[in-house]
Amino acid sequence: MQIHTPNWVKHAIFYQIFPDRFSRTQQLKQKLLQAVSFEDWAAAPTLYGYKGGDLWGVIERLDYLSDLGINAIYFTPIFQSASNHRYHTHDYYRVDPLLGGNEAFKALLDAAHARDIKVVLDGVFNHASRGFFFFHDILENGQLSPWLDWFKIEGWPLSPYNVEQPANYACWDNNRALPQFNHANPMVREYIMEIAEYWIKAGIDGWRLDVPACVEAEGFWQEFRERVKAINPEAYIVGEIWEDARQWLDGTQFDGVMNYLFAAPTIAFTAGDRVQVQYVQDRSYRPYPALFAVEYKEAIDKLLGLYDWEIQLAQLNLLDSHDTARVLTIAGGDRASVELATLLLLTFPGAPSIYYGDEVGLPGGIDPDSRQGFPPESQWNGELLALHRDLIALRHRHEALRIGKYKSVYASGQCYVFERRLEAEVLLVAVNAGTEPARVTLEAPGETYPRKVLFGPGQVEAAEGHLELSLPARSGLVLG
Amino acid sequence: MQIHTPNWVKHAIFYQIFPDRFSRTQQLKQKLLQAVSFEDWAAAPTLYGYKGGDLWGVIERLDYLSDLGINAIYFTPIFQSASNHRYHTHDYYRVDPLLGGNEAFKALLDAAHARDIKVVLDGVFNHASRGFFFFHDILENGQLSPWLDWFKIEGWPLSPYNVEQPANYACWDNNRALPQFNHANPMVREYIMEIAEYWIKAGIDGWRLDVPACVEAEGFWQEFRERVKAINPEAYIVGEIWEDARQWLDGTQFDGVMNYLFAAPTIAFTAGDRVQVQYVQDRSYRPYPALFAVEYKEAIDKLLGLYDWEIQLAQLNLLDSHDTARVLTIAGGDRASVELATLLLLTFPGAPSIYYGDEVGLPGGIDPDSRQGFPPESQWNGELLALHRDLIALRHRHEALRIGKYKSVYASGQCYVFERRLEAEVLLVAVNAGTEPARVTLEAPGETYPRKVLFGPGQVEAAEGHLELSLPARSGLVLG
């Protein structure tokens, strides 16, 4: 079959927002919320406290995002939920009141679209919360509830809060706060499909799907795709799959996945043995041990071999997220690691996604620490921000960086070079992850390779039939 | 001050619908609900089971209600709630999915208004449910919840379901399913006011307020009235107050109350010692012991002396409700008791309210038994239905029965007579509650009293200066 993924995604640069932590408006629209008290914005995040970021606040920062070159936002969940990360959905049709409710979201969507910024929401359809109406009805009415078959009840009585008794229902990750839907029930299936349709009709540009591998009902994600694309053929569907995702990337389900298979080797190569293992172990990706260039090339070649090129161009590439420690912290605070990884992120096929705050040097360990409040401007790392701005602009200027073919052309020691090629346009990207300056010689038959430095402190010399790159320690270079 | 109550209420005949039990559509509009299984419609009601009545079904019965002469409906709660009576509100902005959701309600409101039928909803603002979002957030986040002050937390941890531990929050009637709002919190107050405004703007014609005496915040119901009436000055506000309601009927709060002070003596007079005490004791009204006519007159005169006449005309008069046994059952199945009580109901100042099914002879003990499924036509008591139809038509024909002055003119033994007088129009209503035929002589100076029999098997003879009524045993008579 001919696989089709949304064209806009191939040209998108995403910004991932954790809504409670990005921006809190000072101009409250709702009388209702005027007296709500939050935990201190700058304090270390806790599992249960809210910092009060909201969507009105995001609207106020859209100019910042536009200036940065962002043209798509992926929001972690925004629906009504009694958790600061909002993965415990209480109501799929209501934007959380702390975020400003449906009114604020409508305003945000309009304001984003006016700036040509797409908006993708997080759909948590494997499980709901124990306060979710249909589950709550079972808690209240027991075996007489009409919604009994919506969940996986294993015995009676249910014990939603008292941990001394068995929960007696299936829940995600053995967390009784998160009862799992029974997707085999056609009503549940229809319920979820209608939610997906509703928000696509409301104008969102796609769905990021939380733990979709847990949904095992036959044909579920195929139907999901069909019904979403029937409304908007260019809607983006991206699944949270950390590993080999071929099962879901056959063109009938997702357009792409959160590309932790890119993140892991990229961190392992650029941060190398700086990686602080305590921040990455016990996670579903492996950005360690350190990789040499040859190993990095192998990992990338393998990744690029997994899926159709149309899928590759629609992957959601990332270095970190709300589910990981931040790359800066993983790298022990080493800024060059972040810079090199960011260069690789912004020159790779697929849509780069920048986790809010990474661009200004926000640190963060494993969650909840990686969900700190976005810092005030006085605390921004200006050089990191400039690097992001430059690399984003570079990507926007050069279509080859977005949809051009990718080919490794050099891998030795800690130096790695690849080309992106789109018809006549060719760019070369080189990274020296080592702590010593390096010289790289590339065979350059004819006029194939560019010689103009578009980014980076390195230098290039052209000679008969080859190119000589001089790469300072821990630096990257883009030629075009 | 000049008290004003809605004019339409003075001319209204209400029908009280318990939505789960009145009418279930056979033409399901929602794919979602097609496989929901309900308890048998005809089986005895249970505390936790649903019978699946819905608002689409009510629409299908609007012609029946119009034919009966109904021009207003009071719905017990319709908002999303995990209880068959729906007094445990889970979401004040969402009509329950089993009822057809907001879509069905919109259709119902339009269809009712097209038939000049008003719609009054039940507002449960004293307490919410333990699944209600803002309370649920406290269950999930404990002392870090931003909504802590929305309820009355008395200690930690909370125990919403495990009855072996103290609940540690204030709840209605010590029922931990029903956490009480903290109305002293200005946010809570605003939240409730906005709900009230929202549904009035959506077109409902009024609010019946559940247990409003429990809401003790200063000026709460005054503000409620101001904000509701600012949107629709003719919106009806009727409180659930079972006893002396002067505190709330001063013209600044409610237009009327559920008039159990009318129900109690009316049942005690018409059913007399037939009243089955087990169905009425432990309730907040006293339809026993049996009353003679003089005692009935005293109770009614006292009631009519309590409030301004403008209030009297806007009372919600009733014989029974979802909170009581049905009058037929209270009277031990004696139909004449129901007929006499219904005659008094439909000739009294204030809006009569007929509890669904009473008009066709549906029996029912204390709840949940008084909430049985509305019976199929084959089980209707045709004579009782005809009586309702006739008396309703009579009330609609004679304005004096609606807004004319009320005056007792005779009370002796078990015979009671009163007049309703509006300018030139005078009607006389006589009831003989005794088991023997009775003759009643009324002094009739000049031409004041009517002589034409409008209703009932009794006879009238006019003589010089007085009127002689012949009243068969257990019968009523209306002259006009």
Automatic annotation (TrEMBL), chains A, B:
Protein name, UniProt field: Neopullulanase
Pfam family, one: Alpha-amylase_C_2
Keywords: Glycosidase, Hydrolase
Gene Ontology MF annotations: hydrolase activity, acting on glycosyl bonds
Lyase as UniProt keyword: no
InterPro entries: Alpha-amylase-like_C, GH, GH13_cat_dom, Glyco_hydro_b
PANTHER family: ALPHA-AMYLASE FAMILY MEMBER, MALTODEXTRIN GLUCOSIDASE
Annotated coiled-coil segments of the chain: none
GO terms, biological process: carbohydrate metabolic process
Glycosyl hydrolase family 13 catalytic domain ranges (all copies): 16-395
